[in-house]
Specification:
It is a single chain. 58% of the residues lie in helices and 14% in strands. The protein is α+β, with helices and mostly antiparallel strands. It folds into 3 domains: 7-73 and 123-145, Ribosomal Protein S5, domain 2, CATH 3.30.230; 79-117, no CATH class; 149-283, no CATH class. The termini are close together.
């Protein structure tokens, strides 16, 4: 299945004392353009995170933001350090030498540095959770891009079917159109006093008939449409191949219009160009 270059994913996790989040955004681009923003605490992981994203995504302008926010500890998260309190109690025995000194209040003890231990997370665990969250975000992004790619593939397949309808509509008319045009040209030659049965004029008419023959263009259109369907079925990173096929389809439709000597052929050429332009716009977003 083909995948789109447009997608979004956001995941988050609460750790002791901090909240960790990963956000991925991607849009279409000619190649992989990665912008990575990480907090200072994870600056050492930047190279590894960048390599992991590049291994998963082939094309697109990708923005990855990793956020690390300190959370306000609740009452259940507060913990008293008994060892620190014992040290403070031992130091408070100085009152034996200063009987007039006031004892420490509970509020003063709790405000003493180190008595209340705030929850923290080890750097190794923080790095592991960052990698895990990035992996989850990449999977979510891949799912979003795959769903968008499925819609694009369905639209492209519908356009291929419409192109085949146009080709099937005009292909049977080609011999009759050529014969009618040559008869009309022969009548004009006779009106001008020329004999269209002369060998020289026959050669010129045969050459002109070759120039206005669009059977080859119709055949190439059918071939390119079949190739588009094959690429869609194969999936993978097919954006550049599909873009090339759009150029080839547009070239054949242009040639069909320039060779046309019939109003219906000209109309078919216009319809083909509209369909191919719709496909080209969608293909720009395929990885």
């Amino acid at each position: 299945m083909i995948v789109s270059m447009t997608g979004f994913a956001a995941v988050a996790a609460d750790l002791p004392g901090v909240s960790l989040s990963v956000e991925l955004r991607s849009v279409n681009h000619r190649y992989l353009d990665l912008q990575l923003r990480v907090p200072d605490e994870l600056r050492g992981l930047e190279s590894a995170l960048r390599e992991r994203i590049a291994a998963e995504l082939k094309r697109g302008k990708v923005e990855c933001r990793i956020g690390l926010n300190r959370t306000t500890p609740g009452a259940a998260a507060l913990a008293v350090d008994p060892a620190r309190v014992e040290q403070l109690a031992a130091a408070a025995r100085v009152r034996e030498h200063a009987p007039g000194a006031a004892p420490l209040s509970v509020n003063e003890i709790l405000r003493w540095p180190g008595v209340l231990a705030e929850p923290t997370v080890a750097p190794e665990e923080l790095a592991a959770r960052a990698h895990a969250l990035l992996g989850q975000a990449l999977r979510d992004l891949a799912g979003a891009r795959a769903r968008e790619g499925a819609k694009t593939a369905a639209m492209l397949d519908a356009c291929c079917a419409a192109i085949e309808v146009q080709v099937a509509r005009v292909a049977p008319r080609i011999p009759a159109v050529h014969a009618a045009f040559l008869d009309k040209l022969g009548a004009r030659l006779r009106e001008a006093g020329l004999d269209p049965d002369q060998d020289r004029l026959k050669q010129e008419l045969a050459l002109f008939a070759t120039k206005i023959d669009v059977a080859e263009e119709l055949s190439r259109l059918a071939t390119h449409v079949a190739e588009v369907r094959r690429v869609l079925k194969a999936g993978g990173s097919a954006g550049k191949r599909l873009d090339f096929l759009m150029q080839e389809l547009h070239r054949e439709a242009n040639t069909l219009g320039s060779k046309s000597v019939d109003a219906e052929l000209s109309q078919a050429s216009l319809e083909l160009k509209v369909l191919i332009e719709q496909m080209r716009e969608q293909v720009q977003n395929v990885e």
